[in-house]
Model the fold of this input.
Amino acid sequence: MEHTAHAQPHAGSALAFLLLALLLGAYALATRPGRAGRRWSPWRTLSFALGTALLGLALAPPLAAFAHADLRGHMLQHLLLGMFAPLALVLGAPGTLLLRSLPRRAARALVAFLATRPVRTLIHPLTALALDIGGMYLLYLTPLYAFSTNDPAVHFLVHLHFLLSGYLFTWSIAGPDPAPHRPGLKLRLGVLFLGTALHATLGKLMYAYGFPQGTAHDLREIQAAAQLMYYGGDVAELLLAIAFFARWFRRSHAGPLGALSPPEKGKTAAPAVTCRPDR
Amino acid sequence: MTVQVQSDMRKSMLATALIGIGLMAGVDEIVFHQLLGWHHFYDLATPQIALFSDGLLHSAELIVLVAGFFLLLDLRGRQALAPTAAWAGLFIGLGGFQLFDGIVDHKVLRLHQIRYGIDNLLTYDLLWNASGAVLLLIGLLLSRRLRARPRMA
Done:
């Protein structure tokens, strides 16, 4: 297989690490007490730091090298970039922190922007599902994967898409940030259900029919990678389901684990700029 | 019996019934679909659809399990868990799913059979449904005790 992608893997990794460090630094700076008066939960900071660490792990030179040589390495990267890191980042509530740190007018403008029709459509759980899981079907069941291993730019975009669509999907299901126009819990549960089923199905299709095709990987390697995708995806979706129900229970009653009163009836609206995790 | 106690008993039963359904669906999927490979959830179309139907079943059992455990955790947290009702719910969930799968899925809708290429399918069906019926019966007997002695629940 041609390995023209990542001609200078170490330079790429160094740049990624720098960006991650900057991101984490900005997050930490914004959590300083006194900035907006309210204390920021250390659990959120920990979660966000874990997310950046998982991203760093996915992009570290040893794993990147493994991913070039072996489809299982690619699958490990895929799970970290597209599922585990996004969950940890989303639970760190960076959106809430951003709204809280911005000047009031800028925060209002941002909320107004998120409420515009095109953006609302883009961040709808169903759109997120199509982008995230649909993107995976496109990548693995078409020649796109083989193409991406030969073209550094496509390779980079595929990774970026994993991360962004994974974040969007996770956020649209269980994101703690204020989201006044987010659809209700039942629709989100349905999307989570469909996403889990489609991900499991893709793993099995790849196992049974030897996708992605047109690569130098032999069938046994592809099957091992598909199994990794199936079981790894399962763990990630289990965690996402836990995050989702934790929010459902938290908001259904007062107290950290209130009673399951009838779930909110299509009403998810939190006041637009409360700048507090929407629970 | 106060309304609160009744509602807690119902919730205790619901929580463990969900867990029972999820567990039994998990046993079915892991043992019969994956390890033995005897059948898929829907065997009447292409293999791709069979795999997708398994994916749906898998996803549903995962979500039902998580939902059930959260309900249980919530009841425990409020010290409102009714143990007998919870055990009754678990057995009703286990047996109810097994019997529903055995009668509605296998026989009424004929989505799939337990095993293909064998002569004595009837024996398989009888064993399958009898095991479900026994579990369900245990659950129903336990839930009768609730009505007899609500304070003990």
In short: Chain A touches chain B at residues 189, 192-194, 196-201, 204-205, 208, 234, 237-238, 241-242, 245-246, 248-249, 256-260 (CB under 8 Å). Residues 1-7, 254-279 of chain A have pLDDT under 50 and may be disordered. Residues 75 and 136 of chain A are 11 Å apart (CA to CA).
